């Protein structure tokens, strides 16, 4: 392979598609949600009683009236066909973490060479995919195939377009014939309802009116890498595992700090704009795009939405990024750590609670020290995070996220909360009995008369915290970039619901002898004192914090996925999920089993790929170079280089034999035994192979090296 040719050809591969025209700015408003069947759209297509019934289900959580299904199905089919759709699918989210779909045509033969386009209420409400072909964690055996998808009316149907047509997608849940949830959406919907039931009684104590409903809102910041498609397909490790299993550090990485918020390359910006237009049509309110810290790394972020819809939209964002990148000769890498030695990618989840009347329960307002409702719910979050550190860590656990968490780029595996100086000061004053305002905001001059004074927040931000308060929400930063956000949101909703129920009982008891402000102060003070250990506003990357967190504060440090998922179905967590009807014991055990299985299979694929690439590509390249060096004469340079390359090649060969043994061993018959073998034996053996291979990359002549290197993949755009 000629690396110079690769660089030039990759840089030249892309050109603007002359058949594609930009969407005029004045039409962007019309484009938004144009491929979404909103309630407003249905209002003009349904009878008034049918619309009111569906509206009650969507907006107030009322039981779906099955009698309107045929009417809704007809309206949905008519709208979809107007949009060019010929097929429909129940679009669901199995326990793989991605989405699934089976397309059925609207066309039905009517006899005598005639066909009609039809779609019934029964077809809208329910479909029957093969449940045995998806992960079930033991809930279903291979011969037990029956499963059901069921329409989720709270998330609107939408159109997915492709080159030759379009498909109507109906967001759905997925359950086994025995009734257990086999998906990520069902527990999320259950947790949303649990949060509503937990929070509304507390709100009534603060004077909320009847009819107030509460849900969680979510905005997820998606980080990703882009590399040239030519490079991607020349990297067996990227194709097989999603990350580079080999690669020496280039002379330049991210140390110049010039990529973050830098000018976006034209090719990338064209891709971003195309993706955004598609997302706008799907009703996804993407707001922000920018270069991230690492070279070749970028971010896209929507604004807040209802958490169930946000979870659906997040899956669509990942899908659109992947498919659109290919149009521009690029590949979008969503793996948490596709390249060693530079920042990995996360998916910061900005979570809050809000009412159906638009009130954000985590908005402190201008005088947070006087906002007793805010302090009450903020205290509930503090309690929830402290009591359920294990569950929060487990819900973001994966083999890929292990490469990111704890590095100097991402939050540590230790859960803590950053409140900021203003809020911390307010809570400290409450505990000490002082009360009153904390540190106040102000204005900052910039030293020039032509520049305005700008408002300064009362507290700084902390990018090293895994769970940070950021003004009117909490930002859960430990979620991985390739991960579905459904389970992390489910966990957040559930643990906060549990904390609110407990604090509401305390508040009701305190109200028997005092007024509301005094009672809330008492509850908040006691909660903060009890759970203050979880508050940390310092450097989460420092080794001093790790030691303090574990030894002095008694916080959990679950460093790896296997450490974390061991806690998933503990008695405490099983009781929590059962209490709120989120997951029963079998459903929870199944999820743990699936997490073990996915971890095992992920690392097993990486181990086998490492062995294959080292044996068939890297070692032969080193030997070919050695053969050429053997013809270079007996000079000191030739002999010295030959000796060095030969020595490292021998190290690679020896490490490869050990990896081959560990790959073959598997570690046992049970999936958790196999998973532990992958972590404890295969990953270290892979690291030894990589160490030798990466050293060879720096020694072997470029014309012999069999794959694109970091210098090319990260910087050619």
From TrEMBL:
The keyword Ligase appears for this protein: yes
Signal sequence, renumbered to the chain: none
Domain GS catalytic span(s) in chain numbering: 184-618
Single GO MF descriptor: glutamine synthetase activity
Residue span(s) of domain GS beta-grasp: 86-179
Biological process per Gene Ontology, one example term: glutamine biosynthetic process
Keywords: Ligase
InterPro entries per the UniProt record, alphabetical: Gln-synt_C, Gln_synt_N, Gln_synth/guanido_kin_cat_dom, Gln_synth_cat_dom, Gln_synth_gly_rich_site, GS_Type-3, GSIII_N
Highest taxon, organism lineage: Bacteria
Keyword Nucleotide-binding among record annotations: no
Cited PROSITE patterns: GLNA_ATP, GS_BETA_GRASP, GS_CATALYTIC
Family: Belongs to the glutamine synthetase family.
Name of the molecule in the record: Putative Glutamate--ammonia ligase
Organism placement in taxonomy: Bacteria, Thermotogati, Deinococcota, Deinococci, Deinococcales
């Amino acid at each position: 392979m000629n690396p110079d040719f690769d660089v030039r050809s990759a840089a030249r591969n892309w050109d603007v598609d002359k058949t594609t025209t930009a969407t005029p700015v004045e039409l962007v408003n019309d484009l938004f949600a144009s491929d979404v069947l909103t309630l407003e759209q249905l209002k003009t297509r349904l009878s008034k009683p049918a619309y009111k019934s569906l509206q009650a289900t969507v907006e107030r959580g009322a039981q779906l009236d099955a009698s309107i299904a045929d009417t809704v199905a007809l309206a949905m089919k008519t709208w979809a066909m107007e949009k060019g759709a010929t097929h429909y699918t129940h679009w669901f989210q199995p326990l793989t973490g991605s989405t699934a779909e089976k397309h059925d045509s609207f066309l039905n033969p009517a006899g005598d060479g005639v066909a009609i386009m039809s779609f019934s209420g029964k077809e809208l409400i329910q479909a029957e995919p093969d449940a045995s072909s998806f992960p079930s964690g033991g809930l279903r055996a291979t011969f037990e195939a029956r499963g059901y998808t069921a329409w989720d009316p709270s998330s609107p149907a939408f159109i997915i377009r492709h080159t030759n047509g379009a498909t109507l997608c109906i967001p759905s849940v997925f359950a086994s014939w025995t009734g257990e949830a086999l998906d990520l959406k069902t527990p999320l919907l259950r947790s949303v309802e649990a949060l509503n039931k937990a929070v509304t009684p507390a709100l009534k104590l603060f004077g909320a009116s009847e009819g107030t409903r509460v849900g969680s809102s979510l905005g997820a910041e998606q980080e990703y890498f882009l590399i040239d498609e030519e490079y991607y397909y020349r990297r067996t490790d990227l194709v097989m595992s999603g990350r580079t299993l080999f690669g020496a550090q280039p002379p330049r990485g991210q140390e110049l700090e010039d990529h973050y918020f830098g000018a976006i390359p034209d090719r990338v910006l064209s891709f971003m704009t195309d993706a955004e237009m598609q997302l706008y049509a799907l009703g996804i309110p993407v707001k922000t795009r920018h270069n991230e810290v690492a070279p070749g790394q970028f971010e896209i972020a929507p604004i807040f939405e209802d958490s169930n819809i946000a979870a659906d939209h997040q899956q669509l964002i990942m899908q659109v990024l992947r498919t659109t990148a290919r149009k521009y000769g690029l590949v979008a890498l969503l793996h948490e750590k596709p390249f060693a030695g530079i920042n990995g990618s996360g998916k910061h989840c900005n979570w809050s609670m809000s009412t159906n009347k638009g009130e954000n329960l985590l908005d402190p307002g201008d005088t947070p020290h006087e906002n007793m409702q805010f302090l009450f719910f903020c205290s509930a979050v503090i309690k929830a995070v402290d009591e359920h550190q294990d569950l929060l860590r487990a819900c973001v656990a994966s083999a890929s996220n292990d490469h990111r968490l704890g590095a100097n780029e991402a939050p540590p595996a230790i859960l803590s909360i950053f409140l900021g100086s203003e809020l911390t000061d307010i809570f400290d004053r409450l505990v000490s009995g002082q009360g009153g305002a904390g540190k106040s905001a102000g204005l900052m001059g910039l030293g020039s008369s032509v520049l305005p004074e700008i408002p300064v927040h009362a507290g700084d931000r902390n990018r090293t915290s895994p769970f940070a308060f950021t003004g009117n929400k909490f930002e859960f930063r430990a979620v991985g970039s390739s991960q579905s956000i459904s389970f992390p949101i489910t966990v957040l909703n559930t643990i906060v619901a549990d904390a609110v129920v407990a604090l509401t009982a305390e508040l009701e008891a305190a109200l028997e002898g005092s007024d509301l402000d005094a009672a809330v102060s008492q509850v908040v003070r006691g909660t903060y004192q009890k759970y203050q250990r979880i508050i940390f506003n310092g450097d989460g990357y420092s080794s001093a914090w790790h030691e303090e967190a574990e030894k002095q504060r008694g916080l959990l440090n679950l460093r790896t996925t296997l450490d974390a998922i061991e806690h998933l179905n503990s008695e405490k967590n099983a009781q929590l999920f059962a209490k709120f009807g989120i997951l029963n014991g079998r459903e929870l055990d199944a999820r743990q089993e699936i997490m073990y299985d996915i971890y095992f299979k992920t690392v097993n694929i990486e181990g086998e790929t490492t062995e294959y690439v080292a044996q068939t590509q890297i070692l032969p390249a080193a030997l070919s170079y050695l053969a050429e060096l053997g013809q270079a004469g007996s000079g000191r340079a030739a002999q010295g280089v030959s000796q060095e390359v030969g020595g490292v090649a021998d190290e690679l060969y020896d490490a490869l034999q050990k990896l081959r043994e560990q790959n073959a061993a598997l570690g046992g018959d049970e999936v958790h035994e196999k998973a532990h073998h992958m972590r404890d034996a295969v990953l270290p053996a892979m690291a030894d192979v990589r160490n030798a291979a990466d050293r060879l990359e720096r020694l072997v002549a470029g014309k012999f090296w069999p794959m694109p290197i970091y210098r090319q993949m990260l910087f050619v755009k």
